[in-house]
Amino acid sequence: MAAIWIIWKAGCRRVYQKDFLPSLQVARWVLNFSREIVSTIRNKASRCASKMSWVSWVPPARDVIKLNIDGSALRPNCHAAAGGIFRDFEGAWVAGFSANVGTCLVVAAELWGVREGLLAFKKGFRSIELEVDSMVLVDMLIREELF
Q1: Are 43 and 69 found together in one domain?
Q2: How far apart are CA 122 and CA 126, in angstroms?
Q3: Tens-digit pLDDT profile for residues 106-141
Q4: Could you tell me if 65 and 37 are in contact, meaning their C-beta atoms sit under 8 angstroms apart?
Q5: Residue 6 belongs to what domain range?
Q6: What is the pLDDT of residues 41-91, one digit of tens each?
Q7: 112 and 137 share a domain?
Q8: The pTM is what?
Q9: Is residue 36 helix, strand or coil?
Q10: Is the Cβ–Cβ distance between 65 and 91 less than 8 Å?
Q11: Rounded to an integer, what distance in angstroms lies between the CA atom of residue 98 and that of residue 105?
Q12: Are residues 75 and 31 in the same domain?
């Protein structure tokens, strides 16, 4: 899979950036990347396994709507988007949204998702439980360090 990705990336570079990469250079990238993957798996698998924990969606209380948010960016300060889903105590879909948030960092995209989701308060939801997957954002919200 890594080889296919590197070959595809080299082709895109040739088409969009008019930068031709010799086949030997692409082959070296594939070999080096493959070695890095194997090394990572061998050296870090045991350490990662000890830190793994199962997580699952936990329903909110009966009178609460749960809002799950996620944001993403291709690279730092690149195209970003955010989305969210509202579910009830049985896990049933209530509403959802997605937003193109322009050019920003991932944490900013996540924050846009929180903002968009909390606008649901205007739609009549009064008890909203917010769930995000960014500890950086959680720390910012708890400490009120958004500005």
Answers
A1: no
A2: 9
A3: 888 888 888 888 887 777 888 889 898 888 888 888
A4: no
A5: 2-51
A6: 666 555 545 556 677 889 999 999 999 999 988 776 678 899 999 999 999
A7: yes
A8: 0.59
A9: helix
A10: no
A11: 17
A12: no
